Every structure is written in C-alpha cells, then in structure tokens.
Amino acid sequence: MTKVFTRPKSLTDKPFHYCPGCTHGIVHRLVAEAIDELGIREKTIGVAPVGCAVFAYEYFNCDMQEAAHGRAPAVATGIKRVLPDRVVFTYQGDGDLAAIGTAEIVHAATRGENITVIFINNAIYGMTGGQMAPTTLIGQVTATTPYGRDPGKAGYPIRMSEMLATLEGSAYIERVSVHDIKHINQAKRAIKKAFETQLAGKGFSMVEVLSTCPTNWGMTPVEALKWLEQNMIPCYPLGVKKEGK
Amino acid sequence: MTKVFTRPKSLTDKPFHYCPGCTHGIVHRLVAEAIDELGIREKTIGVAPVGCAVFAYEYFNCDMQEAAHGRAPAVATGIKRVLPDRVVFTYQGDGDLAAIGTAEIVHAATRGENITVIFINNAIYGMTGGQMAPTTLIGQVTATTPYGRDPGKAGYPIRMSEMLATLEGSAYIERVSVHDIKHINQAKRAIKKAFETQLAGKGFSMVEVLSTCPTNWGMTPVEALKWLEQNMIPCYPLGVKKEGK
Amino acid sequence: MSKVLMKGNEAIAEAAIQAGCRYFFGYPITPQNEIPAYMAKRLPEVGGCFIQAESEVSAINMVYGAAGAGARVMTSSSSPGISLKQEGLSYIAGAELPCVVVNMVRGGPGLGGIQPAQSDYFQATKGGGHGDYHLVVLAPSTIQEAVDLVMEGFDIADQYRNPVMILGDGMLGQMMEPVEFRPLSSKRELPLKTWATTGYTGDRPRNIINSLFIDPQALEEHVKRIYQKYEEIKKNEVKVECYNCEDAEIIVAAYGTTARIVKSVIQKAKREGINVGLIRPITLWPFPTSTFEEWAQREHVKAFMSVEMSMGQMVEDVRLSVNGRKPVYFYGRTGGMVPEPNAILSEIKKVIGGVSR
Amino acid sequence: MSKVLMKGNEAIAEAAIQAGCRYFFGYPITPQNEIPAYMAKRLPEVGGCFIQAESEVSAINMVYGAAGAGARVMTSSSSPGISLKQEGLSYIAGAELPCVVVNMVRGGPGLGGIQPAQSDYFQATKGGGHGDYHLVVLAPSTIQEAVDLVMEGFDIADQYRNPVMILGDGMLGQMMEPVEFRPLSSKRELPLKTWATTGYTGDRPRNIINSLFIDPQALEEHVKRIYQKYEEIKKNEVKVECYNCEDAEIIVAAYGTTARIVKSVIQKAKREGINVGLIRPITLWPFPTSTFEEWAQREHVKAFMSVEMSMGQMVEDVRLSVNGRKPVYFYGRTGGMVPEPNAILSEIKKVIGGVSR
Amino acid sequence: MCMARVIFDEERCKGCELCTTVCPKGIVVMARDRMNSKGYHPATVIEMDKCIGCAFCARICPDVVIEVEK
Amino acid sequence: MCMARVIFDEERCKGCELCTTVCPKGIVVMARDRMNSKGYHPATVIEMDKCIGCAFCARICPDVVIEVEK
Amino acid sequence: MTHQIIIAGFGGQGIMLMGQLLAYAGMLEGKNVSWLPSYGPEMRGGTANCNVIISDEPVASPIVTEATAVMVMNRPSLDRFEGAVMRGGLLLVNSSLIDKKASRDDIEVCYIPANEIADQLGNSRVANMVMLGSYIAKTGAVSPAFVIESLRKALGPSKEHFITLNEEALKRGAECVKECVRR
Amino acid sequence: MTHQIIIAGFGGQGIMLMGQLLAYAGMLEGKNVSWLPSYGPEMRGGTANCNVIISDEPVASPIVTEATAVMVMNRPSLDRFEGAVMRGGLLLVNSSLIDKKASRDDIEVCYIPANEIADQLGNSRVANMVMLGSYIAKTGAVSPAFVIESLRKALGPSKEHFITLNEEALKRGAECVKECVRR
Ligand SMILES: Cc1ncc(C[n+]2csc(CCOP(=O)(O)OP(=O)(O)O)c2C)c(N)n1
Ligand SMILES: Cc1ncc(C[n+]2csc(CCOP(=O)(O)OP(=O)(O)O)c2C)c(N)n1
Ligand code: SF4
Ligand code: SF4
Ligand code: SF4
Ligand code: SF4
Question: Which residues form the pocket of ligand 2, taking CB atoms under 6 Å from any ligand atom?
Fold first, then answer.
C-alpha cells in the first residue's frame, strides 16, 4: 500500500493550536500542499499575521516572519524586494487584512507586488474573542455588535476581492470556500494558482478563503460549515475576480 | 447693475496661499458656493487635510478641524457621530486620501458614513515638493520617480472613485475636472449633489476633482490645464461612478 | 448606592458612561476587550454611539473629531495599539482637546505577550509621541480607584483641555472587585466648551481645532502656553498615597497593581520586624516629586526602591525626585511576570543589609 | 578622497549607500524630503530598491521585512511620521532586527511646524513605542559627523541586532557643508546574518523573525537577554565630546545643532572672560552618564545647564547623571525657534551669578 | 473489495466531527469510549474494509489527523 | 451693447493667466505695465464695453480675484 | 480571617463562575473580596483557573500565592496547584475526573466525586456547584444562601428553574464533604 | 577671518544658488564653510534667504545673526535684513528692484543695478551673478575663478555655454562695485 494522503512536508510536526473544527487548519494544509507540489519550500518565506494564525510561523516548515497586525503585505514587500527570486506569501485574517491592514493590502495590490496573499475571511475576529470584522454579515451578533450588525451604524460587509480586483496591479484574485470537499479541492487549485502567478512574475495574487470560526460563532464545527455555505456565500460570491494578462 | 458673480460668503476674506494657477482655489470656491446655495454654512463643519490645503481652515468660513495626514475621514466620523444633524465635509489631496489615508477613506465609505468628501487628485504631492502620489501617471517624473513612474517598481495609478464605488456604503461618487468652464460647472453640480446626498441622509458621498499642480508639474498654469485634459482624463475617466438608492 | 462586583474593564467602561461619556471609538486588543464590548452594549441604551474603528489610528482620530465637536469621548487599547495612537495623541495634546484614553498595558516590546506589565510608563509619561507635550496619567490600583479616576479623569481633561490617560494593566482589567459608582467628592467648575466646532452661527468667533503653527514663534508661544497649563496641573492635580512611611527604613515606590503586591509585602515585612514604606504615585504625570523629596530628607529613610513590572522606568522619576539624597534601587519583573511578594521582600532585605552595612 | 559640498539630507542618504544600504522605504515629509528623493535617484544606479510607501506605518514594516531578510535598510521621516512608526520600531527592537531610522526633528506637538526642533528626545531615547526596549540614538552635530555616524550606525545595528536612530533636525538636514565619505576608522567584526529569513534549505535551523512570546516567562527571558545586550552597548558605544571643560565654571549640555550654537557662545564667553564648557552627547542613548558624573565631581564646575530646542527633555538625563552633585539648569527654545547665542550667554551669566552668590 | 486504510493520529484529534460528515461510506465515527490526553473523543473508523481510500475525511480534517493508504 | 463689468481685486491676482484663456471676447489680458505688492502682473480688462458678463474669467480664477456685474 | 482560594480545571467546567459566585457571596456578606482570572490566548480547550480572596481586611494583592484552599477539577490542575496550598490548608479534589491521590501530608485533602454527584442530579454541568458546596461547608467562607443569591444575579430572572438544581448541588457537595479524610 | 553672509530675495532670483556657489568656492579655497537656507511651506512666490559662512576656523553655528555682509535682491529683504549687518559691515542692495535707500549709517552700503546689468547682458536671470561679482570684488572672500569652477560643477557639462555669460556677469558686478559709496 502506498500513502495516498499524508502530512505535507511544508508543515512542521507541531499540532495546531486552533479550536476544534476551525478551518484555519484546512487552509494551512492546502497552502503547505501547494508549496510541496510546486517544490518551492526551500525558497518560500511566509509572513504570519496577528490573529488566530499568529503562530503560523510554528506550523509552516519554511522561513517565516511574524508581522505586526495588518502589516503583513508591507513586511512581505520588504522581503520580496530584497529577495526577488524567493516566493513570499502572507496569511491574514479579515481583521488583519480588511480592517487595520486596509492600506497595506490595497497598496501591495496596486503596486502589483509580486507576492501571494492567503486571506481568511471568517466574518469575525477570532483571536480577540469574537468582535465584528469588516466582513461580518448584516445582522450577525458579535461581541461588538451585540444587537446584530446594523449597517446604519457599523457599516456594510466589505468585499475585499472585488475591491482589490479594480486595481491594475492585481494579477489574480479568487474567492473560494472550504465548507465541503468539492470546495476544498477548488480552494487548493486556487492557492496553487496564486503561487504559480507569483512564480510567473505576474504580480499580486490573492485567494480569499471563506472560513469558519465555530468558537466565536457559537456553533459546532459541523453547523459552522453549514452556516458558511448558507449565509456567507450569498454575501461573498465565489469565483475568480481577476485574472490578468 | 447687480453682481452676477461675487465671492461666496462661505469663504473668508483671506487670500489663498496656493501657487499661481493652482486649481485648489477653484475647488475651494466651488465648495463655498455649494454651501452658500444650500444655505448650510452655519451648520457645516469642515475638516482640512495635511497637504497644500492644510490651511483650508483659514479659508472656509465655517467651523473647521485640522486633521492629521490622511485621517480626515476618521475625524469627520467623530464629528458626525456627535452632531448627526450638522453637515460634515473633508477636503483631501491624493496623498492624504489615496496613500496614508487609504484605510480611513475605505472604511468611512463602507460604513456609509454620512459625510461628504472633496478629493483633489492632482497626481502628485504638492506641499512636500512634488513626490509621487498613488495617482501619479505611468511615466510621470516626480521627485521620487526621477526616471518616470515605472509600474513594475512603483505600481499603477489608483482609481479611488472606482474602487470606493464597489463598496455598499458609498451613496454617491463622481469624478469631475476643472480644466475648463464646462467642467468647472459640472464639478460645481457634483459638489452640490454630494452635499445634497448628505443632507438626504443617504450615506457617503465623494467628488474626485482632477486638478493641477503647475509648480510641481513644472508647467505654466495654462499648460497644466491642458496636460490635465490630455493625460489625466484618459487615465481617470470622468463621470458618476456610483449613485445609490 | 450599593456595590457591585465587576471586572475592571467593565467597571471602567461603566464609569465613563456615568461620567457622561457618550462616544467610544476603539479597536479590539487583549486584555481590554471587555471595554469596547461593554460600550457596544451600553452606549446605544443611553443614546450614545460606539464605533469599532478600522484601526487604533482611526480610533484616536475619531476621538479627535468627537472631542473637537465638544463631546466627552473615550478610547481604550493595550500597548501595541497605544503605540499606533501616538501621532494622534500628540495632535490631541497640540490641539488641546479633552478626552480619556485607557491603556491596559501588556508585555512588550513588539507583539510581546498579553499578560500584565508596566513597561509603557515611559511612553505614557514622557510623551510617546513627538513634540513637547504631556498627558495627565492616572494609575489606579484597585477597581474602585479606577472607577473614581475615570470619572475624575473626564473632569480633569475638560478643565485643562488635555488628554488624560488611565494606565492600567491586564490584571486590573481582568480582575473583579466590588465597586460603587459614586459622585465625585470634589465638584469642579468646568469651563464651557465654547471652542468646540458645533457650527458657526455667528454668535461667537469661528472655531478652529488645530495644532499647526507654521510660524515658529507662534508655535513656541502656543507650546509655552500649554506648559503654563501644565504648571497649573502640577500644582493642583498631584495624587499620591503614602503607606506606612513613618518610621520606614526603606520606602518602596510602586504604582497600580504592583503597589497592591507591595502592600502585601509590607504586611509580611512587618511581621518580620522590618519597617517598609510605600509611596504610590496615583498621578504618574504629574509625578509626586515633592512627596519623594520630603521623605528623602527624613533621617529614618535609608533608601528607596522602585518596584515595577518593567525593566526600570518609573525608577528614573524616583531618582530625579530623590536627587541623590538617598540611594535608589530597582527591582522589577517584566514581560507579563508579576513580582512575587517573597522575591520583593528578599530584595528589600538585601538593600537594608547593604545600606546599614 | 576629496570633499564635496552637500546638503545634510543628501549626505546622509549617500552615506547610507556607501555603507551598503540598498533598500530604502519612506514617505515624504518636510524637512527630510531630500533623503527619499536622493535614494529614489541613486538606489537604482547601485542595484538597490527604493519604495515610496503608502505611509510611515507601511514604510517601517517594509523595513522590518527587508531587515529580516538580511538587508541593510533605512527609512527616514520627521516627527509626526516617526510617531506613526512607534509600533513598528517596538516590533523591530523586539525581533532584534538591525536597521537605521532617521528623524529630522521638527517642531511639535501635532502638526506643529516644519522648523528645526529637538523635542523628540524623549520619544527617541526613552522608547516612544510600548514595552521595554531602546534604540541606539546618534545625534550628529555637523554633516561630516552625520555621514560618519550613519555609516557606523549600520555597523552598530548589525553588531547588536538593534535599530539605530539618527536624530537630526531640520537645520542639519537642510544646510550644506563640505563632507568627505571616508572609510570608518574602526572596523568591526560583524556577525554573519545567519538568522535572516532567506529560504530554509536545511543547512541551518529554520529562521523565524518574531517578537511574540505568549509565555510570560519566555518573554521576560527574551527581554532580559536584550537588556544584557544593552549593557554591552552602554559599555562599548558611548560617544561624547567634551569641549573647553577644563577650568569651566559652568558646563553646558547640548547636542546636535544646538551644540554648534553653544560653541559659538563659548567663544563669545571666552572673550568676555567667562569659562564655559560643553559636554556634547553624541550618543543620546546610551547617554554619556559617567562623563557628567566625572565633571560633576570637579571643584571648578559650579553648575550644569542643558540647552535644547525643546521645553526640557535631555535635561532629565543630565540631572540623572549629575545626581544632585551640582545644580542643573535648563534653557530652551522650542517650536522651531533656534536659541540665540546672546540669549544663551545671558542665561549662563544669570546662572553664574546665582551660583557664586 | 478496495484495499485502503486510514490511520488516525488520535492524539492530534480534537473531536470536531467534520470527518464523519464527509465519508461517502459513513464509516468514520467518534470513539465515544476513549479520550485523548487533550480530553477529546477521537474520530476513528469502525469497518476499515469498507474504506475506499477517497481521503475525504483527511481532506476536511483541520488538524491533519488522518493519513490514507491504498 | 451689453451692460456688464468685471472688477479685479488686483492685489489678490497671481498672474496665472487662466482668465485670459477663457474669455470668449478675448478682452482679459495681463497688465504688463504694473505689478502688485506680491510681484505679479495682474490681469485686467482693456475694452470693458465688450464684456458680456459671462463670468467665465471669474469662474476659472483660482484666487477669486474677479467680481462680475451686469 | 482571610480566605485565599485557587480554583482550577478545564475551560468549560465553570471554573470562572465558581470563583465569581464565591466573590459575590463574600461581598454580600460585607467582606472585602477580589477575583482574578488567568487569561490566555486560547479560545477553547485550555485550562482555566482563578484566584479568589475573601477577607475582613482590604485586599492587597489579588494574587494568591499561598492558598488557604485549592479546588482542582481535573488532573493537570492537581499537578499544577497542589503545591500552592499553604501548610495546614485545604485541598479539594474532584475525584470523578482525577484518579490520582494528592501527595502532600501537611494539608487537608478531600476527595469529592463532583461529576458523579452532578450526574446523579441529572446534569453533569453542576459539578462545579457540588465542589463549591463542599468548599463552603468545609470552610464556612460564605453562606450558601448568598451563593444562591449571587447565582440568581448571574443567571438572570429567566433561569429561575436552574436555581433549584444548583441549590441541590450545593447541598450534596456539602453533605459529601463530611466523609473527607485528613491524611 | 570669518565671512558671515546673508543673501535674500524673491524665490526664483537664484538666491540659494548664490549662497551655494560662495560656499563651494570657499571650500575649494580650503576654507571651512557652511550654507544654511531658510525653508518654508510655500512652493512659489515666497521670499528666500540663506546664510553662508566662510571661515579659517571650523564653523560653529551655521546661523548668521551678525553678518559681515548682506546682499538684498528685493525690497522686502532690505527691510528685513538691513538690521542684521554688523557695525562696520557691508550691505549690497539690488538697486534695480529696490528704490529705497538703506537707513543705517554705521555700515557700508553699495547699490548695484543688478537686473539692469543682467538685462544688458541679455539675460535678466544672471542678476544674481552680478551681485555676487560685486560682493566678491568688494570683500575678496573667494576668488572668482573658484566661483566659476563651482558653477561648472553645479550646471553640469552640458551647460558650458552659460559659463561665459556668468563669467561676464561676475566681471560686470565687480566693475560696478567700484562706484560704491560709503555713507
Ligand atoms: C495593533 C494591534 N491591534 C490589535 C491587536 C489585537 N488583535 C489581535 S488578533 C486581532 C484580530 C484578529 O482577527 P482576524 O484578523 O479576523 O483573524 P482571526 O483571529 O479571525 O483568524 C486583533 C484585533 C494587536 N495585536 N495589535
Ligand atoms: C504623518 C505625516 N506624514 C507626512 C507628512 C508630510 N506631508 C505633508 S503634505 C503631504 C502630502 C500632500 O500631498 P497631497 O495629499 O496629494 O496634497 P497636495 O499637497 O498635492 O494638495 C505630506 C506627505 C505629514 N505632515 N504627516
Ligand atoms: S477562535 Fe475561531 S478562528 Fe480562532 S482558532 Fe478558534 S475557531 Fe479558529
Ligand atoms: S504645490 Fe501644487 S498643489 Fe500645492 S499650492 Fe502649489 S500648485 Fe497647488
Ligand atoms: S476532522 Fe480531524 S480533528 Fe476533526 S474529528 Fe475528524 S480526525 Fe478529529
Ligand atoms: S485667473 Fe485670477 S489669479 Fe489668475 S491671472 Fe486671472 S485674475 Fe489673476
């Protein structure tokens, strides 16, 4: 018998600290698989965010930098400009990328910075205990929208992929989900393609992954996947948002 | 004989400090005229940026706050939340709004903050002596793109109006120009409409005004208007980008 | 009024509301998340407004706008977030706007950790932002004191048109104690906010909130005027607790949570026949310099020791105050480690041994 | 090598390039705009890379990334922009990354003005960011010294893996003086950057650039290790100039541009028969404490006076060093006003009058 | 009969049950009878001979608990 | 003949010449013979009787130098 | 008299609530009290513990380093906090989940089958109240009536039906502690 | 000997360049020199001035408060800087643009019709070089040859044809200064 599914080499042995059923783990694995398959682990440098994925540097088996909250695209820019032949990726949550890090992601994209961004949209701030994210759905109850997100006061969910797709420097942007096997496979293809975009020197690539936070959504992991499918996807349509040149 | 054209009441008597032929002056006047015509001067609070318009608080004859560089939308948010029945506007350059203030403008827009933004796109940093702005055209020579803006290194011109139009909270966004009388008149209509949008409580409104910086472009004022028409408009198409509900 | 048992963070939020604060702009960060969460829940009930800003930078600038519009307004954060607010704080001080800013300090530098620390003392008291300015810095030691100081903090801010910082730490924010929301003991005559930008109807000069003075002479005058205000604050607002200082051989300087631990140590020391005093600055700026000066002149006081959850920051202000009259020692833990009573006591014994040798 | 006449800002930029700096991330702000402009022009010529970042926050985080990748990298700004970099600086210090940061100080607080000032001393030396850390702060007084210190600054940064700040002011940045780009007099053995994230090929442990230590004990150990490094720096890197101190009745402490003005004053005073000395800290952190200690013990020195373009910041470090042995006075102008020689002299005379009375 | 096998690194399992929802054969279940050292009931396969080696369980597992052989 | 008049606040003029480019009658010119205290040659109208009061000059003037009567 | 208490267990066992109820009850009795949680970055599945002080004197440090009593609800907590009990102090062990015995002989140890009793009551989630009942009965630190009043406050009026269950749990905990053995 | 010079005029009159050429020439002569501009926020139309020091000693403060010589190219500069000339010092006034006379009588004042001379040379933009020529001739602070060498550096090789014009301007300035009157 041969192994048909095994732990990717680009993950360390360290068990994830994520909550049970948290899809951060799935996406970590997909990223690692893509890196393995492209054979680029030795030349990949990852940038971890501040968010639940803050310990990503302990999981990805490549050189890593831990960025300040929201600044991963700037940090990645610094690395990539020094080492243009290396592969540089960031892994960021929606608080990190779509709130405090808005300027950094917009300008990395408009600069056409040749990096890959893995963007975890779980509609909430996980690490700090379930506050509203810019991606929180209308009506969604969080620690800082106790009466449900009211767009009149707290604004509307932000579609980062669509917004960044308007920028000339973005080369490849796709939104995927990991709520079932079919979508996990599609997510994997997208992530791989994002890295390939970078390898081809085409510029900024980003994959937005709709994800769950069972803990702060107050659901079981299984319920959370269902909620994602039923509530997030209608608000955040899946698919390729940009595919350049 | 009656006055058919006179200094608007919403401008103080103070002469502008702007360079000869700088269109900041035109836009100031248009804003003041709109405020006059809507009869809202007494309930208007303006927010000045850091940029050549930093002294705007000396020119607009209403209560004013001077914001930190890029933060005018946040300052305006603070004011508007405290005084929801007042009219609050910001006046910002492209360094202020499209570079350091990216996060603030994106989130004011996505929050549907009921404020009006006058956005001066002159493709350069005026006050600091002619550095590249995010809006600088490809090939344009500036103090920090001495070899011309190379998108491979310094990125692409950013179209803020188009980008912000993707956000649900933005109610009215139009791009105008002031390079001739016809366009000045159109700019005036747009600015007035932006204030009306706020008065109607519809949410975030912004008018992007293509403008000149003869000094840092190294042109006479007359040449600069021509350059604007011939070079900026093709890159920044005029027109309404968003008109909501 | 009766006492309620509350978390420090929640009590601080409630105190702000009771002080008339109706606007809160913040961004999540451990260990102060209960403050925005409480505000998000309570402010709509009292007709106020809570916004979760897109960042700490935005939050402090929303505070600027709201304060300039005449409102009582607060923000809170913890160390890295407070660093991001430094430009804004400098602007607020420069434009002379009143507001209250809470820093529930955690271990640093960088991302550091989330356990309690006092390593933002320098940043808070010397001006983490650029230029000549000061925050009024209040360092509560109990939740009751936190509540009282928040309420008074809003008054101080309004009276002097200056930002006030509440410097707590993760422990103070997370612990629960009984607390009473009571009217301030001293009522201040607060000036009307005639300077606020509320609309220029012509019945007063046009109001401008600003910190730009392009003429250096004008800027210098502006700064000097602010510094005259600071002299007033130094004269009127110093708060300090002296505990067991009479007959003390050694006086410990400690603030906030650390001061509580030192009190435990003092009781312990007493049982062992050692007389230890505590000077607990409640205002870190203005610093209770003269209190230290006075005790430094007492014969029985042989030495001072600053105990902090840092690598040694307040100790500089202690040294400046003691000014060479007596030796000043330091003991600290940092990075989220809390000094243990026994360790402090043994440091004290070492110093006493050394001094009397 | 021959001398060239250069603006301070441009000379600093060129010095960085000569020191092997190939990456610059910055954002425009007066009065340092010549630095990014020069870098934008020169870096492509030497195979380097200039990026005008979208903000100072981004710039300092690009520096973090590039430094972590092993490059010599610089950023520069002026006061408000430096405030925005405080979080990033704290991260860089926490992650122990070498880099050089230039602050061409202007008047504050807030937007303030654009004329030269020294009112960011506290921010630079005490840690404007959160947590326990220090920058090495170098304060050149001439353009030649600026050039030399920038070049050595990169070495210091690399040797200790710590950010180095060049603290200038608008005047130093804007003026021209002859300058020579010469090799450093002392060559250091610099450690290889084996810790840099350049790709994990397996021939070394996996490299991680990080400042997060969730376990407080680990964070404390980390901080203490950094502070041991600081002790090394204090031992090895203090730089100070003593000028005319022998026989001086009064010693003035001044740094940077102000020290130049004080030298003019000293010459003037000499002509009037007054003996004034100058201690000019070149490293503001580590501060030349022992130099002050030594001179404070001399009989002939009756007093110290700190002269600054601020409301009084370095004076605290002077007091801490003198530690009560002699009185310490302060004279300052701020907000972009430059102290006039005559005014300084008359302050000196007042002090001498007071002390000898 | 398909020659396939799944191996659970039970210590890593957090009992989230996601794997149990995707198995086309319905053979992945939670081992209610035992707990790992983290206090979770681990997932397991009861009728291994039914396994077709599709690796769905492995692919959805957020904690990389499962290896599949075929 | 159109009864219209433009009035220049010459001290405010910065000599940018924009007004001269938009006048449909071509009557706005720079007064090369004089300078205001800021050192600029101000704009002026030579043949006022040709003015139709369209206010184009006023509308493009960045410094609100011009008033128009009709 | 000063009670210095440490309570520890898994997250989800109601550790924090136990401490808060104790503190609240102490406050209702007019004592000085404090409650201090340990807080960490993990959202779920971590360990939880808190310090409670109930005292006639004002509370100086809220940190308990020498506990008059420690309650451990799971095995790792026993290992970690057994040493924190002061000489002569009290250790309460949830014997339902902890098969090990305590190792010190200078303290009093009681084994409370808290989960078993809770299961008997039909709701394993009240194991914490069983343990609390034992503690109160053993030490008299606060009166059970005040604990119930506190619980009523904490749960809100809608959960009145839970109160009876919790009251019962407290009582059963109190009864069971009588079997406690001094070693 | 220390020359402490202030040069002032409109932005655009080449004030800054005058100062830089002086400093550069001083450096080429082996003197210690410094050049300090005043800088402001306005991009255009403001006034411009700079301080130059040329000295045998190392330059302490680069700020000139008591000038050995002041050159004013426009009227506002005369008003502002006349007082900065040290007793016995030199004031050079661009009489083409300044109709007023200096008011002090404890200094030497020369009136140079710099713009007129420049216009005669066919390029009003070299008025600054005329003024510089006068200053150099009057004080001998630096040699004209070094000024020309400096100019060559500043302009770059492509502008060689300008050099002759500037040389001529320097010379004419030098000549005209002979008519200077001590008041
Ligand atoms: C400057 C700063 N602000 C705030 C924080 C606190 N913080 C840590 S993680 C986080 C949000 C994380 O949310 P998200 O990016 O959505 O990631 P998730 O945890 O959901 O994966 C915040 C606000 C911080 N560490 N630094
Ligand atoms: C935090 C901060 N960074 C930088 C500056 C310097 N600065 C002043 S204005 C300006 C840019 C202005 O450009 P823009 O917004 O395009 O306006 P314009 O001057 O062209 O009207 C900059 C970078 C500052 N004052 N504060
Ligand atoms: S808090 Fe949410 S995002 Fe974070 S690890 Fe837990 S489930 Fe995942
Ligand atoms: S620098 Fe440019 S934008 Fe600024 S006032 Fe002058 S012309 Fe206008
Ligand atoms: S998906 Fe993984 S972690 Fe979840 S129950 Fe199955 S094996 Fe365990
Ligand atoms: S447009 Fe205005 S400022 Fe320009 S020349 Fe005409 S009147 Fe003067």
Answer: B 50-53, 69, 93-96, 120, 122, 124-128, 133, 213; D 27-29, 56, 80-81, 84
